[in-house]
Amino acid sequence: MGTDVMVHLAGVTKRFGNVWALRGIDLELPRGRCLSIFGPNGAGKTTLLKILSTLTRPSAGTVTIAGYDAVREGEKVRPLLGVLGHRTFLYGHLTGQENLRFYARMFGITGYAERAMEVLHAVGLEEHGRQLVRTYSRGMQQRLAIARTLLHRPSLLLLDEPYTGLDQQAIVRLQELLQQLHAAAHTIILSTHDLRLGLMLSDDIAIQCRGKMVYHGVATDLDALALEQIYFDYVK
Amino acid sequence: MQMPRGRYQGWYLVYATATYVSMALALWCVFVYVPTEKVQGIVQRIFYFHVSAALTMFLAFFVVCIASMMYLWKQTLWWDSMALGAAEIGVVFCTMVLITGPIWARPIWGVWWTWDPTLTLTLVLWLMYVAYLMLRADMSDAKRTRMAAILGIVGFVDVPLIRWSVEKWRTLHPKPVIVQEGGSTGLPPSMMLTFIISLTACVFLCFFLIRERVVLAQSRHALDGLRDEIENALGG
Amino acid sequence: MRSLWNRSTSIMSNSRLFVQQVLALLAKDLQTEWRTREMFISMFVFTILVVVVFNFAIGADPEAIRRLAPGVLWVALLFATVLGLQRAAQMESEEDCLQGVLLALGDRSALFIAKTAANMLYLTVVVVCALPLFSILFRIEMVAGIGALGVALLLGMLGLSTVGTLFAMLTVNTRTREVMLPLLFLPVSVPLTIAAVYATTDIIAGKGLADITDYLTLMGVFDLVFLVVAVLVFDYVVEE
User: Fold this and answer.
1) pLDDT, tens digit only, all 240 positions of chain C
2) pTM
3) Which of A33, A44, C52, C216 could form a disulfide linkage to A211, CB 3.0–4.6 angstroms apart?
4) If you write DSSP's letter for every residue of C162-197 in order, what string do you get?
């Protein structure tokens, strides 16, 4: 099932009661590109990512990921996704290793114990693997969450405000990791408030406001200042 | 969005007239036309409304179940309003059964409450659907309708099971002696006619009230939608 | 809503993964519970508490106490179930672990089955520990009918766990979660309560399995109906 287009959204709308969170979003992202979505709070970025990760169904419109219909064929789409949400999805009373082993078993990875150690190494947490996640710092928890995201070697990464709450060192680490993944041909979509970091990483940028995608362009011809200008133009 | 038609026109007139006429007729039948029952006396007249209300209550809860299923399938708010309306009116009729029951029981059997199967079933249903209404009041918009719909289906599925178990249980409790509960066989024609008329009146009343409730809920949704659109237009 | 047929065929084709996921979820729950032992202890202590308090509440007449014993046992189990369920659902809402789990699941009913199984396990352990105590406090001979009692208890606990897990996942986001769960759970499980109490009464009075088949049938039907309904609607319960 090899197509060039990884993600295709057409007319995606999401309504909660009579309040519209998303109004007709159209989006296309080719394989291997990185997209940053900027926008103020309440723009619907989290809702959009939730729809992309099949946690929610849209009220209208189609969502196609790697050629599969995300609404009807959710079970085929989910193994391709690596999702980093607002919260870490980690169990505080289990150790880092146990958390990773659990998720590895859930994803049906053969040799789950080895894979768990592998990703633990990749994020630099091998000494803390046997400690309870409750005792980790925020930065360490974020790193473990990223390890969890990468366990099943997903082709599409969805990151919802990954830089929030991280200190400088952790941000640099995360940025390096994301750049590595980007270079390794992973498709990435992230939402963030930080214009500079998003711009540094991405091929494409988009601005979302009040449930609509008000700007969508290529990142290469922009610098941070120009992006800021555009952002404040579109977001009143 | 269509503008509402004049309040007292069209179908409203038909429903309203049917309801008023049938209720007036029922009242006349129950209090004037039908002869007083030999054994129980005047109190027996409650039976017509008591049993009619019980049957109407079942009908209303059945509507809740169907409307909930339709809502989960079609995802249109109209079905959810229907489920809510039917649940509210169902609880009203349920309360009527629970009030008329003791009023009837006291003079006849000397006790306020008889644990007869129908009354007990009604009590459990009252608890369940009041919990349904509380659940609706308690949840945030996004999930409320869906969770309530699930409860609406599950609750009704439980009804035959509750009835079965309560009847089993009842066989172990001696019934207060003497009088029959005025079952459908053995009723003279005038009483049967009165019963059918009061049943019809209750059903008409039920649907009339549900319809009014649905119209109210839909108007509220339309208002929310308008409000949202205005905010969006002003802000964008 | 995926039809039962669709769902069954998809589960059967991915059965190894499905079973692996259920076991992984179950193991995770048990592992977490073993670390803290909060849930089991609170369920067990609460059961004993209910039994003791009822003893005082009923009064000194030993006959009355004996007659009411089955009722007391099942009320205690009802409350223990509610207690266990609230904790189980809450476990998934910290750090939004539920979403993490949903992302790893193909068929979401694996989560429902794992949670129900976990709850049943806790209840079984509680019952095994509490039954001797119950037998002593109420002065009831249980050894004779232990087989029949076991069947009744199993069917009853299965029903309580099934309905309870469904409602626990349903109410996990309400503001008054602690009140809402028992409020919904108790009326719906009335058939189970009635059948279980009368089955237990009969067993204690010396009747065998053959005599209580109608109660067992009721419990069995209840369990089956709710298992099927819960699996069918579970997708809607966990969706965002």
Assistant:
1) 556 677 777 777 778 888 999 999 999 998 888 888 778 888 888 888 888 888 888 877 878 888 888 898 899 999 889 888 888 888 887 878 888 999 998 888 899 999 999 999 989 988 888 888 888 888 887 777 788 888 899 999 999 999 999 999 888 777 777 788 888 999 999 999 989 998 988 888 877 777 778 889 999 999 999 999 999 899 888 887
2) 0.87
3) A44
4) HHHHHHHHHSTTSTTHHHHHHHHHHHHTHHHHHHHH
The class that CATH gives domain A35-54+83-234 is: alpha beta
Q: Can you tell me which residue has the tokens 């999401």?
A: A14
Q: Which of B132, B138, B156 to mutate to test the interface with C (most CBs of C within 10 A)?
A: B138
Let me know: does B80 contact B145? Beta carbons within 8 Å.
yes
Residue C36 CA to chain centroid, in angstroms? 20
Alpha-carbon distances of B186 from A186, B101, B192, rounded to whole Å: 79, 21, 9
Rounded to the nearest angstrom, the minimum Cα separation between B221 and chain A is 6
Verify whether the Cβ–Cβ distance A210 to B145 is below 8 Å. no
Subunits with 3+ Cβ pairs within 8 Å of C are A, B
Report the relative pairing of strands A34-38 and A187-191 from DSSP bridges: parallel
Separation between Cα atoms, residue C109 and residue C121, nearest integer Å: 18
Chain B nearest CA to A102, separation (Å) = 29
Q: What ipTM goes with this model?
A: 0.85
Cβ within 8 Å, pair C239-A56: yes
Amino acid at site B201: A
Q: Please choose, from the candidates B163, B126, B144, the residue with its C-alpha nearest in 3D space to the C-alpha of residue B83.
A: B144
